[in-house]
Write a structure and sequence with these properties.
Elements (H helix, E strand, L loop, with lengths): L6 E8 L8 H13 L4 E8 L14 E4 L6 H8 L3 E3 L8 H12 L4 E5 L9 H12 L3 E2 L6 E2 L2 H19 L4 H16 L16 E4 L5 H6 L7 E3 L8 H6 L9 E6 L11 H17 L4 E6 L7 H11 L4 E3 L4 H6 L3 E4 L5 H8 L4 E4 L8 H4 L4 E3 L5 H10 L4 H11 L7 H19 L1
Parallel strand pairs: 1-2, 1-4, 2-3, 4-5, 5-8, 8-9, 10-11, 10-13, 11-12, 13-14, 14-15
Antiparallel strand pairs: 6-7
Helix pairs in contact: 1-16, 2-3, 3-5, 9-10
């Protein structure tokens, strides 16, 4: 009997549209490009957003909307996938947790992506206050200019009810449901870092690790070694090739790119804190406009362009601000990059491109990975912005520190992460099919 897999059906939950530029889009695009060279791939994106979205169907994927289903059990039975992707973090990701439980109840393998999490530790009071503020915040509607009143809170409750309905569908005891809700509330009120959020009772069939540094911590909390596979991150597979094609662009001015990240949306900074940093960077660059040209690139999905335009308008500045576009295209034209923290994928792209990078740490947040690795310059206050830019221009990246960073954070920059993951998925299905 042939052990070839003729077709693979994959289900992936996503909190935006798969065409939107995001980590998910970059991650899976690179995997599926490789996987389709080996077998036929049918991809279903389970879109979970505030409102029902129009169906998208093309030769690459098909979307299904969560509002069409009462619980995750219905989703799994309707699609009948070979593989489900879902986080292994427990109830805090309500939709992922529901899908994981439903899939495993029907003996369908669940694959989890685990990346290095450098979200800084926050005081419990600040984290709780941030979550409460965001719970009652209005959110931007995708299909109109109107805000959704208390959108985040309403959607949190919707996702929680979806999880409860799934637990009832799976005939989970009332006591266990109560325990699940208590754990969910606990994660809402306090934050622990990275694998500290993981518990082996929520382990899935296979876990794809971004780097070797994740192995020991996950083994220490009870994950089985045979379920852990270090693959690297496929979003960087094509990065080096494109970076190698960068052209040297000469200019009389220093081109500075402020690449923002959703620190407000993730509860790390308040809106006032973020606006203060943005305003100070703009003002200082304007003061040195004979030497510096500033461009702002905001997150394509998680940040609101209007909020940044208001800051610029208040200063009455003629600053270019962009939301869409490939980060690498911006980096090619940039001499120095300023970021809020090392949390963003864009910051890692910057380091891989070996562009000078400055981290604005005005609020004394500890344990920034790029700063600690001595691959970024730390700027502690507004008066240091211009000196930091000048320092960055004259600095060079230490190759040994860069190599250590790649090993600790990215495993390998060999362009083969998508290949490793594709082979792992095929092996997972092959072994299950032919060992039954």
């Amino acid at each position: 009997m042939s052990k070839e897999i003729s077709k693979l059906k994959i289900l992936i939950p996503i909190h935006l549209l798969p065409d939107d530029m995001s980590f998910h889009k970059l991650y899976f695009e690179n995997i599926f490009a490789v996987l389709r060279e080996k077998t036929s791939v049918e991809v279903f994106w389970l879109v979970y957003m505030h409102k029902k979205q129009k169906k998208i169907k093309n030769k690459f994927f098909e979307t299904i909307d969560i509002h069409e289903f009462d619980n995750a059990g219905e989703v799994i039975k309707t699609i009948n996938p070979d593989i489900v992707f879902a986080f292994a973090g427990g109830p805090q990701g309500q939709i992922h947790h529901a899908l994981s439980l439903a899939a495993k109840s029907l003996d369908i393998p669940v694959v989890s992506i685990i990346i290095n999490d450098h979200i800084p530790e926050m005081k419990r009071s600040k984290y709780l206050k941030s979550n409460i503020t965001r719970f009652f915040a209005d959110t931007e509607s995708k299909d109109s200019e109107k805000k959704i009143f208390m959108g985040r809170g309403k959607f949190f409750l919707y996702k929680t009810m979806f999880l409860i309905k799934t637990l009832n569908f799976l005939k989970i005891s009332k006591l266990e449901i109560i325990r699940t809700l208590i754990e969910l509330l606990q994660t809402f009120s306090s934050h622990t870092k990275a694998y500290g959020n993981f518990n082996s009772k929520y382990a899935n069939t296979l876990h794809l690790l971004e780097s070797e540094s994740l192995l020991k911590p996950l083994l220490d909390v009870g994950f089985k070694e045979e379920t852990l596979l270090v693959t690297g991150n496929p979003i960087y597979d094509k990065t080096l090739k494109k970076i190698q094609q960068f052209r040297t662009i000469k200019s009389e001015k220093v081109h500075v790119l402020l690449m923002t990240s959703p620190v407000v949306e993730h509860g790390i900074w308040t809106r006032d804190e973020r606006d203060n940093v943005v305003e100070q960077v703009i003002r200082k660059c304007i003061e040195s406009s004979n030497e510096i040209e500033l461009t702002i690139k905001i997150h394509p999905y998680n940040e609101d362009l209007i909020e940044y335009q208001k800051i610029i308008k208040k200063i009455n500045a003629d600053i270019k601000i962009e939301k869409d576009g490939d980060v690498l295209d911006f980096l090619e034209k940039t001499d120095v990059v300023i970021v809020f923290s090392s949390l963003s994928t864009s910051a890692y792209f910057t380091v891989i491109a070996k562009k000078p990078i400055i981290v604005c740490n005005f609020y004394d947040i500890q344990n920034d990975k790029l700063v600690d690795s001595e691959l970024a310059i730390e700027c502690k206050d507004a008066d240091s912005i211009i000196p930091c830019i000048k320092n960055a221009i004259s600095s060079t990246i230490d190759s040994k520190k860069f190599d250590n960073f790649v090993k600790e954070e990215l495993y390998k920059l060999d362009g083969d992460s998508g290949e490793r993951i594709s082979l792992a998925l095929l092996d997972l299905i092959r072994n299950r099919k032919f060992n039954d």
